[in-house]
């Protein structure tokens, strides 16, 4: 009974019994929350993959070949953080590479033709990438940032003006030639830079990796030509968009001996799946009838609302990818820029300090405003303002367009990004700033070389959470007139679109139970996969910066 006797300390009366009760209540609440989330996700995945129609033999086969080995790996790796980190890096980079390859093939093959891509590569992407690599090698060149900004701002204008000449040049080269010059060769330079700067390989090894990529692209063409389903353009795009991140993850894992066991995870997943397929086929087991299929993610919605098996999410997936890319660019640039000004440049005394405090208070208040209010704000600013200007466009905004939706969602999450970036910048000790000033550095050099490298992990954490909210929002998009159903993907910034949350919302009200359970569940799983892929890659980047900061 001695443990239950209250004792008097400087913190007041303390009871160990209350502490123990609080500990187990918190533990029980955590378990209930995790189980509730797990049951919800299991229910959605069960419907999306049609697992209720699978036979017992199918379950037993994949349990023996895939589930049990994966569980054994997780049990083995749970107390080994190096193996967990390596496995997470391999998994996230592989999944991110697949998503990036699919998105790039769609954008470059469907939306933007190779000649048009080549024109804007020469005027925007190429100069920006070249300046970035040069700035990493020569950190004393303070003009690199201004040069990249000029390339991003003025490059599209130059590309548009010279589109005819540059696109004709791209047409002469053909699609494989365009992708070899604009994707493979820049990726070779980037691979050599990453191998030397990030992986800390020798210059000879880095140059070998850089030279090996275009050589592999050329040598692989005869092999690819033997497979009619894979075009040369797809091979070059996949080699860069899938091979670069996966190769980086594999080399990074291989150079740490304590992480070698992480390669067991992809080996178990691939070999277990293939072995399970062989056993299921040999035994003639009844397989599930999933709703989430390749046809589902590559087809438009069904023209007839009664035919659920023909439903597809392709236009909504492309619309959401368009949105999240633009939103991430807008919020990161403006959000981090605003946070840097408020924390590093805004006056702390004098008459203008009151203005800064008012701005900070209002930003904190805006973070709690309901999303539908931002939809009204987007409707009033980006839609109605341009409509009042008449037929002469002023920025190209419109009802339900990609740019209007991206700016509206950017307004929604911008306060969250600013607040998280402020907290991350504020957490950098002032002693580091004073030491930098003592070495003769300017304020901008201190921010670039001291403050930002140590605050990037916190900034990325807030940005990840904000983007996860943005990709699942539906109310603001409804307010600005985004279509709930669209049969073609957006073709540019000023074309109309739909997004995954809106298409899922539309399917949820179909009278057919196949829509309300199977098709909707497949849409939710697709949305989760896209969001988790985006978050896992962002978390990986954050962890890299965090390791470098320490």
Give an account of the 3D structure.
There is one protein chain. The chain contains 20 helices and two strands. The protein has 550 residues and is mostly helical.
The biggest sheet, with number of strands, parallel, antiparallel or mixed sense and barrel status, is: 2 strands, antiparallel
Major sheet strand order: 1-2
Structural class: mainly alpha
Mean pLDDT: 82
Query: Alpha-carbon distance between the termini?
Result: 47 Å
Order of helices and strands: EEHHHHHHHHHHHHHHHHHHHH
Report the C-alpha radius of gyration, rounded: 26 Å
Low-confidence stretches: 390-395
Inertia-based shape = globular
Summed up, the helix count is 20
Identify the quaternary structure here. Answer: single chain
Query: What is the count of β-strands?
Result: 2
The proportion of residues in beta strands is: under 5%
Helix content: over 70%
Brief sketch in words of this structure:
This protein has 550 residues and is mainly alpha-helical. The protein contains 20 helices and 2 strands. It has a two-stranded antiparallel ribbon with strand order 1-2.
């Amino acid at each position: 009974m001695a443990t239950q006797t209250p004792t008097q300390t400087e913190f007041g009366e303390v009871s160990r019994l209350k502490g123990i009760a609080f500990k187990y209540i918190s533990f029980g609440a955590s378990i209930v929350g995790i189980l509730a989330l797990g049951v919800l996700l299991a229910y959605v995945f069960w419907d999306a993959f049609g697992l209720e129609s699978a036979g017992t033999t199918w379950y037993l086969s994949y349990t023996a070949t895939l589930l049990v080995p994966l569980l054994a790996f997780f049990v083995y790796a749970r107390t080994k953080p190096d193996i967990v980190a390596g496995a997470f890096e391999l998994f996230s980079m592989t999944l991110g590479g697949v998503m990036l390859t699919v998105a790039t093939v769609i954008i470059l093959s469907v939306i933007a033709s190779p000649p048009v891509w080549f024109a804007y590569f020469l005027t925007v992407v190429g100069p920006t990438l070249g300046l970035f690599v040069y700035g990493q090698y020569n950190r004393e060149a303070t003009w690199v940032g201004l040069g990249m900004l000029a390339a991003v701002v003025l490059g599209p204008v130059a590309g548009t003006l010279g589109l005819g000449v540059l696109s004709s040049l791209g047409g002469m080269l053909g699609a494989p030639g365009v992708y070899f010059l604009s994707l493979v060769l820049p990726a070779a330079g980037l691979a050599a830079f990453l191998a030397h700067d990030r992986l800390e390989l020798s210059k000879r090894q880095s140059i070998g990796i850089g030279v090996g990529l275009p050589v592999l692209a050329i040598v692989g063409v005869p092999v690819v030509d033997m497979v009619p389903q894979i075009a040369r353009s797809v091979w070059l795009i996949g080699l860069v968009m899938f091979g670069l991140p996966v190769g980086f993850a594999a080399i990074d894992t291989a150079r740490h001996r304590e992480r070698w066991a992480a390669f067991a995870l992809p080996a178990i997943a691939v070999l277990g799946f293939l072995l399970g397929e062989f056993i299921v086929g040999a035994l003639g087991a009844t397989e599930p009838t999933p709703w989430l299929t390749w046809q589902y993610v590559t087809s438009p919605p069904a023209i007839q609302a009664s035919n659920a098996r023909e439903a597809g999410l392709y236009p909504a997936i492309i619309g959401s990818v368009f949105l999240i890319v633009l939103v991430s660019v807008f919020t990161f640039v403006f959000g981090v820029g605003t946070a840097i000004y408020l924390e590093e440049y805004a006056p702390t005394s004098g008459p203008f300090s009151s203005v800064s405090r008012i701005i900070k208070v209002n930003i904190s208040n805006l973070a709690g405003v309901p999303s539908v209010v931002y939809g009204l704000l987007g409707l009033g600013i980006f839609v109605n303002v341009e409509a009042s200007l008449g037929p002469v466009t002023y920025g190209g905004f419109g009802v339900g367009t990609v740019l209007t939706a991206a700016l509206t969602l950017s307004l929604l999450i911008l306060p969250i990004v600013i607040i998280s970036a402020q907290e991350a910048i504020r957490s950098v000790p002032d002693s580091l700033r004073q030491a930098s000033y003592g070495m003769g550095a300017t304020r901008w050099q201190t921010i670039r070389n001291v403050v930002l490298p140590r605050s990037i992990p916190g900034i990325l954490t807030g940005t990840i959470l904000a983007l996860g909210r943005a990709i699942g929002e539906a109310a603001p998009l409804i307010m600005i007139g985004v279509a709930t159903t669209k049969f073609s993907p957006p073709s540019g910034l000023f074309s109309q679109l739909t997004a995954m949350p809106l298409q899922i919302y539309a399917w949820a009200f179909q009278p057919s139970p196949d829509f309300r359970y199977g098709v909707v569940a497949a849409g939710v799983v697709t949305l989760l996969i896209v969001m988790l892929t985006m978050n896992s890659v962002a978390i990986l980047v954050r962890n890299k910066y965090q390791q470098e900061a320490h």
